[in-house]
Amino acid sequence: MSAKPEAIPDAAQHVHTATVSVRWGDLDAAGHVNNSRFFTYFEEARVDWLGATLDGPLFTESGPVLANATCDFKQPLTHPATLVIDVYATPPGNSSLKTVYDAKLERSGDRVATGTAVLVWVSVETGKSVAVPELGLR
Questions:
Q1: Element housing 16 (H / E)
Q2: What are phi and psi of 54, to 5 degrees?
Q3: Cα 67 to chain centroid, rounded
Q4: How many domains does the chain have?
Q5: What 3-state class would DSSP assign to 66?
Q6: DSSP of 117-133
Q7: Which among 78, 85, 87, 92 is least surrounded, fewest beta carbons within 10 Å?
């Protein structure tokens, strides 16, 4: 694992690595991956992490909803390519936590984007915020 980029807070710990393939349909008219696709790549990595970490499926009783998401684009991305996305998470608050993403090209290790997402855990029944489940974060 390479050094964390500056955008990742010191309190964040590495929690998962996911591999995501760029699809032909992800490209825009200029032949680059459309900016919105990066949010989907981060989502795939996040759901992969949560699925591997939690004991049961999401949204049986509660689950995370996205409160905020950002992406900083470092260089254009084209097809074909495979991304390695490192997922970091900060210690949770009462009902939320921040996740951070570092997307690099699998072959060269060049960083193509970094991003963040704030997740709020909500009750399926009430829609109100609830405590973040145990995710093994310090």
A1: strand 13-21
A2: -85, 150
A3: 13
A4: 1
A5: strand
A6: EEEEEEETTT--B-PPP
A7: 78
